[in-house]
Amino acid sequence: METEQREPVRSTAMMQSFWNVQRHLVRAAHQTAQENGLSLPQFHSLVTIAPRSPITQKELAAHTHLPKSTLSQSIEGLVQSGWVIRDTNPENRREVVLTLSEQGQRFVDAIKQQEAGMQQRLEQILDQIDPAAFEQMLKTHEQIADGLKDILSSGNGGCTDD
Fold it and tell me: What does the pLDDT look like over 23-71, one tens digit per residue?
């Protein structure tokens, strides 16, 4: 009886812990987006395009997992702001190719400086964690992710391109 109650409690505690950390990381990204006059989907799209430019809109959708309408609105805003150039692929007229403009690259570089500040703050937090405990945490996360990937790969839902 004790094992039956213990397992769900452990899995619930683990999920709540992950959600709590993720919530704060998303809040940090949202704050960076707001400070730069972007919506969170625009910010996500922009930082996804930057290292992959040029990228097709279809590839961007696969990387961001944003709904089609949200992604289209996000791209439209980035194009109107002059940060992203949207072209038709000359080899496949049905395909849209996205590239950062020079202004967009400067903007992303400025955001990276802000994000570097966030990363430095995160490093300060992580410095307070015992290095052995940190390494164990990463191994544990990998073990959990691998286990979940095995469950989901059998067609039980989830994203297939992660």
Answer: 998 898 888 888 888 999 999 999 899 999 899 999 999 999 999 999 9
Amino acid at 92: N
**Residue 6, exposed/middle/buried by CB under 10 A (0-12, 13-18, 19+)?**
exposed
Q: In this structure, what are the phi and psi dihedrals at residue 104, rounded to the nearest 5 degrees?
A: -65, -40
Question: Is the peptide bond prior to 54 cis by the omega test (within 30 degrees of 0)?
Answer: yes
Q: Strands 84-89 and 92-100, how do they pair? A: antiparallel
Torsion 117-122-126-128 (CA) sign: positive
**Angle made by CA atoms 104, 51, 42, in degrees to the nearest 5:** 50
Give pLDDT tens digits for 128-156: 999 999 999 999 999 998 998 888 765 54
One-letter amino acid identity for 84?
V
pTM attached to this predicted model: 0.70
What's the CA gap between 13 and 100, in Å, rounded?
41
Q: How far is CA 112 from CA 7, 14, 98, 151, in A?
A: 41, 31, 20, 35
